[in-house]
Amino acid sequence: MEAKYIITEFNNKKTGFLLEDGKLVRACLLTNESLVGNIYTAKVINIVPSINAAFLDAGTGDTLYYSLSDNEGKHIFLKHGNSEKVCIGDELLVQVSMDPIKTKKGAVTSIIELKGRYSILKRNNTVGFSKKFVDEDRKNVLRERVKNVIESEMGSFSKIGALIRTAANDVSDEAILSEVREMAIKLNSILNTAQYSVAKNRMFSAPLDYIEDLLDIIAKNKYDDFKIITDLESEYDLMFGIIDSGYLELYNDEMISLSKVFNLEDKLKKGFNRTIHLKSGGSIIVEPTEALTVIDVNTGKAIKGKDVQKTFLKINIEAAKEISRIIRLRNISGIIIIDFISMKDTEDIRELIGYLKSFLSFDEKRVTYVDMTPLGLVELTRVKGERPLTLADFN
After folding, report:
1. Nearest-CA neighbor of 87 among 68, 64, 69, 104?
2. How far is CA 337 from CA 25, 83, 271, 371, 377, in A?
3. Contact 229/4 with Cβ under 8 angstroms?
4. What is the mean pLDDT of the segment spanning 77-83?
5. Given 26, 238, 285, 345, which residue has the most CB atoms within 10 angstroms?
6. What does each C-alpha distance from 235 to 9, 47, 287 come to in angstroms?
């Protein structure tokens, strides 16, 4: 698969567009307004026993949700009274795990992690590996070496582990250990400095999201051919020192804009339509609600031929591919219900679900296929993080 990541000014906003085989699958404003990944010293300002949660002030402009049950036994107290429980007035070290979405508050966790290209340092006291990291002998040796590096750099702070990512498959153990050591030193510094910091102080800023995404794409060797193209010289200069120049291209044709070359405006508008028309003649209708997103697949004018059931399967497979793209483009998260065209043959249903899972596997975020209900509704969940996008965000 060929992919291009376009960075340009779109309606006076720096925007990134990811195209896979010419189709727009992601669009994001590159303002880095997201707080996800930032680490703060925060003050507990309220406890709500009915939901077993606390609300914290980290100085971000709004209170943040903190689950007491999810973080039980893992709190990082900076200032604490005599009680064994989290109390109003306590100060904690936390990391933002979710941005505010509509009426829902942002969320924080004490399960702090730092992400690298080949590994993730986290508070779980184990060294795990990506499912695609399959060399068992190498894993056994590397597990012990990673543990030793963490223990030597973290000092008195225990229960720190790591997850070795898929991208580590293609680099040396020394490169992985070097990154783990660098992150352990950084985490140790954050934990030590936080002990003497005042409340509502940002201790760590997550790297620019899109730079991290680009590095991740390259490290995972996700595409057969991948290029990053920008007409912003300052952006090119920024990336030149971080990303291998072989992936970079500076566009400087003054006769036609980069946006026009790739027809980005038209692609964006079509991607955010309520109704998405399929080449087969069928269509998809996307209906976001407060609790979930409902996606309906319709036959439209596509019923042709004698074998209607095979036509339904063909439309459903095309719809599944388009739905996986729309979910990524709009950053739809939480519960997703898909009403595919009803099919009678269980083998056809099994084939459709196989295709759907395959298409969803390209998503940058974790998408879980839950089940197909007795009514034939497919249930998915997609990890929440940044809020969903609408066309208005790009205007």
Report:
1. 68
2. 20, 44, 19, 10, 6
3. yes
4. 83
5. 26
6. 11, 44, 36
* Kind of pairing between the strands at 248-250 and 225-230: parallel
Q: Is 276 exposed, middle or buried (0-12, 13-18, 19+ CB in 10 A)?
A: buried
Return the SS3 of 224: coil
Cβ(15)–Cβ(394) below 8 Å: yes
C-alpha torsion 202→204→205→207, nearest 10: 180
Per mean pLDDT, which range of 87-91, 191-195, 242-246 is the poorest?
A: 242-246
Roughly what angle, to the nearest 10 degrees, separates helices 346-360 and 308-330? 20
- Angle ∠(312,318,320) on CA atoms, nearest 5: 100
Looking only at the bridges linking them, the beta strands covering 161-164 and 127-129 are: parallel
CA distances from 17 to 139, 264, 367 (A): 36, 8, 21
Nearest to 286 by CA among 277, 295, 278: 295
- Close Cβ partners of 349 (under 8 Å, ≥ 6 residues apart): 343, 372
Q: Which residues contact 89 (CB under 8 A, 6 or more apart)?
A: 43, 44, 79, 81
Which residue's entry shows tokens 């703060």?
Answer: 40
pLDDT the model gives residue 387: 77
Give the tens place of pLDDT for each residue, 270-287.
999 999 999 888 899 999
- Name the nearest CA neighbour of 29 among 91, 121, 99, 76: 99
Q: How far apart are CA 32 and CA 30, in angstroms?
A: 6
Question: How large a percentage of the chain has pLDDT more than 70?
Answer: 97
Average pLDDT, the chain: 89
Q: Mind listing the pLDDT tens digit for each residue in 359-381? A: 999 898 889 999 999 999 999 99
Chain length of the chain: 395
Q: How confident is the model at residue 84 (pLDDT cuts 50, 70, 90)?
A: confident
Tell whether the model's pLDDT for residue 263 goes beyond 80: yes
